Amino acid sequence: MDSFWTGYPGVTIITAGEVLAVVVPLLIAVAYLTYFERKVLALSQLRKGPNVVGPFGLLQPFADGLKLLIKETVIPSGANRLVFIVAPLVTFTLSLVAWAVIPFGARAVIANINVGILYLFAISSLGVYGIILAGWASNSRYAFLGALRSAAQMVSYEVAIGFVLVTVLLCAGSLNLGKIVEAQRTVWFVVPLLPMAVVFFISGLAETNRAPFDIVEGESELVAGYFVEYSAMAFALFYLGEYANMILISAMTSVLFFGGWLAPFGVPPFTWVPGWIWFFAKIAVLAFVFLWVRATFPRFRYDQLMRLGWKVFLPFSLFYLVLTAGVLTATGWATAR
Amino acid sequence: MIVQTVLFYIFSLAAVGAGAAVVAARNPVHSVLFLILAFFNTAALFVLIGAEFLAMILVIVYVGAVAVLFLFVVMMLDIDFRELRSGFVRYLPIGAFVGMILLAELIFIAVSWAVPVTIVGAVAPAGATAISNTRALGDILYTRYLFAFQAAGLILLVAMIGAIVLTLRRRADTRKQSIATQIARTRAQSVEVVKVPVGEKV
Questions:
Q1: CB 3.0–4.6 Å: which of A30, A124, A257, B27 could bond A197 by disulfide?
Q2: What CATH number is attached to the domain comprising B57?
Q3: Inter-residue contact B44 to B55 (CB < 8 Å)
């Protein structure tokens, strides 16, 4: 029986089970993140938010999902049909596959690969395709303008994210996400690398096209940007992808800077709580910051957004990278690992 | 092992097919999409031989950045497809000539290539040692090939500066925002509180 579980069929079954164990809670979390967002926005604007469907409006996400499911999928006559349908699938799939390398605990990870951090970077750099393809295939001016903006925006902020990742892996001495978390046992990276954590989170906001960087959607000028022609399930897939990406950026921030599954202090009673609960708590707090930012800041103007990415974040992260490398070399901490 | 072999044939067939479709597709946007598919399959082949670092770099650099810019340009340009195809027969000989040279080079390399004696010790088969291939690549790139690596970086830098110089133009009629002046503004310069007596002008 042991040989079965280590052979190809057994491993396939186990992996499929692990994938389900990650994806199903993730989709539920996405559904409730939309509810959470509406509640947070409502509370910060002194409203009540959804409170009709179910107790405290808790069934609202399912009502929304059901509504989107039974609506008609409209494909514009001028659209490129195949690409038009593929684009939301690409967005949604990419937002799910990134979770393969996220470590939920010391051993709780689907694929414990050597280059986990590069894999995450690769997947997040692909996110732009869903948007570009949607904008182009819709054959609509608004959608196309949104797509072009997003292409420029996401490519710009990826550069800063890349430098942040390099800084983190310099400190951790490994590209493996599990080892990066283990390297934070003495001190979380947010303490020595606080400016980089801020740069990473803000770039994450830009990368997921969230407010205040949501000029891709820009409903006051572009109606809804790249997904203006989408309806029903295709629209829902974009929506699910966007929220799954928010949770992903929160998870990445907590893995890279806030010690992933590690407790805040390595002493009881903090260590009594299981690691995955700490991890989920960190993700929840960071996801709240996403919503908090949306409720607080107005949308950036396009040229200011580009200026922030290229003239502020890029030079700063480059400087901090050199500084970190210099400190690590001078103190000999780099050679320790 | 059988699974690896099957996967190898799937990925390599898909890569070759996608490569052919890049040339054959009528719509340039579809061409770029097939190019992306070819990149992906190549990355999968890299993973199969245990070169996960190269696979990820291929996806990040080519799919994540280069192909996005290709797609960007192809979508923006107003290309007349018919005009593009019109010179097919005229340019066929020179295209075939370049293709033959590339093919000859590939065959030459495939036949004659062997691991140089000097670096045999530095290259270990994947999985044979505890050193990951990211580390092995870094070790060899920053020691033996340091100057070649730096020279490549320098050439790219020059090319980048060249592209910026060629496209940079200053227009006299545009009004630009001066961030420094704007931040340096104080309350005294911009706001004035005036008490206006009833029935009089400011």
A1: A257
A2: 1.20.120.1200
A3: yes
Q: Is residue B201 part of a domain?
A: no
For residue B108, the number of C-alpha atoms closer than 13 Å in the C-beta half-sphere is: 6
From A115, A132, A307, residue closest to B53, measured CB to CB: A115
Q: Which amino acid appears at position B86 of this protein?
A: S
d(CA B69, nearest CA chain A) in Å: 8
Q: How many domains does chain B have?
A: 1
> Is residue B41 domain-resident?
yes
In a domain, B182, yes or no: no
Which chain A residue shows the shortest CA-CA distance from B67?
A129
Q: Any alpha helices (H) in chain B, and if so which ranges?
A: 2-24, 28-48, 52-58, 67-76, 81-86, 88-112, 133-141, 146-167, 179-184, 187-190
State the Cα–Cα distance between residues A122 and B133, nearest whole angstrom: 18
In angstroms, the separation between the Cα of residue B13 and the nearest Cα of chain A is 22
- Yes or no, beta carbons of A151 and B71 under 8 Å apart: yes
Tens of pLDDT, residue by residue over B83-114, are: 666 777 788 888 899 999 999 998 988 888 77
Q: Which domain holds residue B58?
A: 1-79
Helix spans in chain A (H):
2-6, 8-44, 60-70, 81-97, 116-137, 141-172, 177-182, 194-207, 219-222, 232-256, 275-296, 302-307, 314-331, 333-336
Report the amino acid identity of residue B55.
A
The answer as to whether B101 is a domain residue is no
| Residues A6-46: tens digit of each pLDDT | 777 788 888 888 888 888 988 889 988 989 898 999 989 88
Instruction: Write the ipTM.
Output: 0.81
Task: Tell whether B3 lies on the interface with A, counting CB pairs under 8 A.
Answer: yes
Size of interface A-B (CB pairs under 8 A): 65
* Minimal Cβ distance to B65: which of A113, A125, A175: A125
Decide: A213 and A300 in contact? Cβ < 8 Å: yes
